[in-house]
UniProtKB/TrEMBL annotation:
Protein name, as recorded: ABC-type polar-amino-acid transporter
Reactions this protein catalyses: a polar amino acid(out) + ATP + H2O = a polar amino acid(in) + ADP + phosphate + H(+)
Highest taxon of source: Bacteria
Membrane topology: Peripheral membrane protein
Amino acid sequence: MAADNLLQKDRPAIEVRNLCKNFGDNEVLKGIDFHVDQGEVVCVIGPSGSGKSTLLRCVNRLEEPTSGTVLVEGVDITDPETDLDKIRTRIGMVFQQFNLFPHLSVLRNLTLAQQRAKKRSKAEAEEIARKNLEKVGLGNRENAYPAQLSGGQQQRVAIARALSMNPDMMLFDEPTSALDPELVGDVLGVMRQLADEGMTMMVVTHEMGFAREVGDRVVFMDGGVVVEQGDPKEVLGNPQHARTQAFLSKVL
Ligand code: ADP
Ligand code: MG
């Protein structure tokens, strides 16, 4: 068991090899090689339509890869033998739209999946939920309903909900893109804190400041391929490819 755990920790959290994804005739991912090491924060940037969300969604098979390999902690998620539900409980997902259950209180939003998928008791689930609400700065809002919260608060609830499943890694797909500008900072602050605590993170984002300061690596995608990647300060400050330069000149 201990040896097994040790081996797992040596593997990348996420490893994608030659991943292709077509939607009909539309070749959206054209042979992507991509990885996220344990404890690493990888920010994925690139123009709209470049395939960032599709890549992220292939990691837990919300999209079915057309070809290629996706390994999560060394386990091939496209293998029919793989227990997908089990793998998915290790991966926390946060989307642009917060996807909270509108008819449930904040606390219930956080306990539901814990009780169903993790088989935790109500008391245990609530204890974990409260700890995570505290962590995202919403310890006093457990009885609120999503509609009573700001977008930034709702997104922090969504992060707390994902954390309550004790994931090994977190995937964020433009978590601040739907927020009013004054609410972005609080959400990025929570994400920065998670990164500081050593969480493994894949973050699709247009927040270049976050990518530069918090990212261990930046991956620039365009047209379904990885064009350039590396140290954030290098990629953002001294991009080597014309496509990266063109993109950054628009967003920076
Ligand atoms: P990004 O997140 O970088 O903006 P996406 O991965 O969302 O890019 O989309 C890449 C391309 O894939 C786009 O052309 C988009 O229209 C197409 N696409 C994404 N999801 C679907 C889908 N479910 N069905 C058909 N086409 C899709
Ligand atoms: Mg997207």
